[in-house]
Amino acid sequence: MAVSPLAERLRPQNLDEYIGQSHLVGPGGILRRMIEQGTVSSFILWGPPGVGKTTIARIIANSTKSKFYTLSAVTSGVKDVREVIEQCRHDASSMFSEGRPILFIDEIHRFSKSQQDSLLGAVENGTVTLIGATTENPSFEVIRPLLSRAQVYTLKPLGEEELQTLLDRALSSDEILKNRKVEVRDTAALFRYSGGDARKLLNILELIEQSTPHGEPVVISDQSVTERLQQNPQAYDKQGEMHYDIISAFIKSIRGSDPDAAVYWLARMIAGGEDPVFIARRLVILSAEDIGLANPNALLLANACFDTITKIGMPEGRIPLAECAIYLANSPKSNSAYMAIDRALSLVEKTGDRPVPLHIRNAPTSLMKELGYGENYKYAHDYPGNFVRQQFLPDSLVGTRLWFAGDNPSEATLEQRRRSRWEDGN
User: Fold this and answer.
1) Cα–Cα distance between 388 and 378 in angstroms, integer?
2) Environment class of 343 (CB within 10 Å of its CB; exposed 0-12, middle 13-18, buried 19+)
3) How far apart are CA 49 and CA 46, in angstroms?
4) Which of 93, 101, 161, 162 is disulfide-compatible with 67, CB 3.0–4.6 A?
5) pTM of the predicted model over 0.85
6) What is the pLDDT of residue 4?
């Protein structure tokens, strides 16, 4: 009889067996409260592979009295979604139903816009509770109407202590490993190659166990892990390693202005079969976050690269990707816009909804005009240089600075312009 993979044999069945994500499933965590209270709201789990997204969904399935349905975005179409929703609608109206049906969609980022649209009505009217799982940023991959109906919870890679707990549990409780002599000499390589991915760690552990003849001890060491992975590089989920470790090296190389390293890591991703659209999207983000106002043309080029990739695909797409990566690496760098919006968001969180000054409010009705909306507003184009000083921030925040120029010629010009408008002559 075939034996299930180690990762499946050790999959937690309840929260007491679950390792990691204490901010969500630990004492007082939002998902723990949902599970314990039996009232599950729609949500999307966002995190890298092997951190417990599917496991959380299965624990909910085991602990709730609701009907539980599963779809994979890789194999399901609009027809499948509609059939499941119709079944959920029937279950919800049944006199024997004990709770709202739950629909779990794995890799929801792979759903097209039309497939995601087909979920909206059922989620909004309460026919179904949606649980989605994705390794991609939902802001880019999930349509906005669906995001507004489902809370997003971020899952983190497992830390070394959590990986150690997982290793200890595997060695002590797995039906195969506990009956073998295992020597753990060091774990640095095991944890490094695992990269916070529980499934990857268990895959490596299983590879070493299966490649060790019976009667010999299973040795877990930096040497044994490295040797086994060199012999079988697919054993520890190459896609996960490519997707997180190498994209990190790629982005950091561009941020560090090293075009040679940037092209090298780009080649590694292309050779490894990485999605070129994913690479192009990261270049767009980087151009705004790390180059920004130091060279606004960077964002234009990155957007053009993204557009080109979606039109021509691979292998020709490697050329605009390389062009964009080299240009961004050689571009001056600034994160002033990135820092400014984070300061602004922090300020909004601290100060709340401060009222908009009356003179810059819109006044579409006569009542609003009578209340002073728009009164004494100065239209900039009526003044020399298309500028006139007036208050734009809420009264209590007048004088607050959020944007500070970076150290580059482009922003020096912007800062000089700002000073001449708002500070000179005061």
Assistant:
1) 7
2) middle
3) 10
4) 101
5) no
6) 82
CA distance 183 to 45: 36
- Mean pLDDT across 153-180: 92
- Residue appearing with tokens 């979606």: 310
Please count the other Cβ atoms lying within 10 Å of the Cβ belonging to residue 75: 10
Contact indicator for 237, 203 with CB cutoff of 8 Å: yes
291 to 278, 281, 411: CA distances (angstroms) = 19, 15, 11
Distance CA 62, CA 300 (A): 49
Q: What φ, ψ does residue 379 adopt, rounded to 5°?
A: -80, 115
Cα separation, 249 vs 255, whole angstroms: 10
3-state secondary structure of 69: strand
Q: Which two tokens stand for residue 418?
A: 């700002």
- Among the residue ranges 93-102, 178-187, 241-250, 296-305, the one predicted with the least confidence is 93-102
Q: Locate 263 and state its tokens.
A: 């092209």
Residue 50 identity (one-letter amino acid): G
1: confidence class by pLDDT, cuts 50, 70, 90: very low
Instruction: Provide the 10 A C-beta neighbour count for residue 104.
Output: 23
70 - beta bridge partners? 104
Whole-Å CA distances, 158 to 41, 200, 398: 25, 11, 44
H-assigned helices in 26-132: 30-37, 53-63, 78-93, 113-124
CA 406 from centre of chain: 28
Task: List, for residues 307-324, the tens digit of each pLDDT value.
Answer: 999 888 888 899 999 999
**32 touches 15 (CB < 8 A):** yes
CA 324 to centroid of chain Cα atoms: 23
In contact, 100 and 126? CB cutoff 8 Å: yes
Label residue 222 left, alpha or beta by phi (over 0 means left) and psi (-120 to 50 means alpha).
alpha
pLDDT of 21: 93
How buried is 150 (Cβ within 10 angstroms: 0-12 exposed, 13-18 middle, 19+ buried)? Answer: buried
Tell me which residue of 263, 286, 372 sits closest to 337, measured CA to CA: 286
In this prediction, residue 205 carries a pLDDT of: 92
Q: Which residues contact 327 (CB under 8 A, 6 or more apart)?
A: 298, 301
Could you give the C-alpha distances from 202 to 5, 43, 210, 232, 236, in angstroms and in order?
A: 9, 28, 12, 15, 9
Where do the DSSP E strands lie in 193-325?
218-220
Query: Per residue in 255-295, pLDDT tens?
Result: 999 999 999 999 988 877 778 888 999 999 999 999 999 99
